[in-house]
Design goal:
181 residues, 5-stranded antiparallel beta sheet, alpha+beta
């Protein structure tokens, strides 16, 4: 009888120790997997969730994730709203982002880089508002290079970085958002 209790106690301790070890390994694997996730992976996992992106000082953009590229994301305001293009590197804070993630091959991923999406906007001849580190300017994207874009600024009567109708060159690294006008 006494030996049976000792063996039962040892078996119980062994089972408990085994559970603790499995839990620790599982937690380590979860942390390692989480360490591999990028902001783009997390944005892909947002689905139809309304997000607010804090971009630069004072610029807040709200909408749902429409499409994600290698270095950009588009947000759509409302069901039929316009798309806003935001470089991923410009995002400082995301409000409303769920913890789930989606890997690039799962969905919403575009193979296009930021330059490609900017060239699409240039082809459409859409009037846009560029938000940059130096302020905002309104016009049409005239040309897109490797690290700059040319904007034909439009006279709008608004208080913007550079009023009047002239061609401006904007460093893509300073770009915070491309908003529809």
């Amino acid at each position: 009888m006494r030996f049976e209790r000792i063996f039962e106690d040892l078996e119980g301790r062994f089972a408990h120790h085994e559970q603790q070890e499995m839990r620790a390994v599982s937690e380590d694997l979860t942390r390692a997997e989480r360490a591999q996730l990028t902001l783009a992976d997390r944005l892909r996992g947002a689905g139809a969730q309304l997000l607010t992106l804090h971009v630069g000082s004072g610029l807040r953009l709200s909408g749902t994730v429409d499409e994600i590229g290698a270095d950009w994301v588009t947000l759509r305001e409302g069901a039929g709203g316009q798309r806003t293009v935001v470089p991923l590197r410009a995002i400082v804070i995301v409000h409303g982002l769920p913890t789930r993630a989606r890997l690039p091959e799962e969905s919403l991923r575009s193979p296009l880089g930021l330059g490609s999406i900017l060239r699409e906007i240039a082809r459409d001849r859409s009037i846009v508002r560029l938000e940059t580190l130096a302020g905002g300017v309104i016009g049409r994207i005239a040309a897109v290079g490797a690290d700059t874009l040319d904007l034909q600024a439009l006279p709008t009567g608004e208080s913007v970085l550079v009023p009047g109708s002239e061609r401006l060159t904007v460093a893509i690294s300073a770009l915070q958002a491309v908003l529809p006008r």
